[in-house]
Amino acid sequence: MTVTDDELAARALEIDPDRSNIVVCVGMKGSGKSEVARVIFDQWPYDRAVIDVTGDARPLDPTTRVMTTPWPATLPKPDKDRDEKRITAWLRVNPRSDTY
After folding, report:
1. In what order do the strands lie in the sheet with 48-52?
2. Helix or strand or coil: residue 80?
3. Contact indicator for 24, 15 with CB cutoff of 8 Å
4. In the structure, what pLDDT confidence band is assigned to residue 13 with cuts at 50, 70 and 90?
5. What angle do CA 43, 85, 18 make, to 5 degrees?
6. What's the pLDDT at 83?
7. In sequence order, what DSSP letters do the residues of 59-72 get, joined into one string?
8. How many CA atoms lie within 13 A of 33 on its CB side?
9. What SS3 class is residue 95?
10. What does the pLDDT look like over 47-90, one tens digit per residue?
11. pTM of the model
12. Which residues, 6 or more positions from 84, have their beta carbon under 8 angstroms from its beta carbon?
């Protein structure tokens, strides 16, 4: 059985959420990096972490927790009273900071 280029590309985009993953999107401006990242991010079934160096990626998800202290010891848990299934931990970092 021969595998086509389209089938290979589709397999490359498969991400198993039950395994550890780091997703990095690189490319030229306007090439669709943000769109791909948002699709993956929105469909992710588990807790999510955002490390934001530009300050413009904060998700609008109501379960977003703004992190102000170092990770990973401070990661929050979903609020059972609000029936949260997952949380989004968001941290704004400054690459020019001495503590970066």
Report:
1. 48-52, 88-92, 64-66
2. helix
3. no
4. low
5. 55
6. 77
7. ---TTEEE--S-TT
8. 9
9. coil
10. 888 877 777 766 666 667 777 766 666 677 777 787 777 888 88
11. 0.57
12. 63, 78
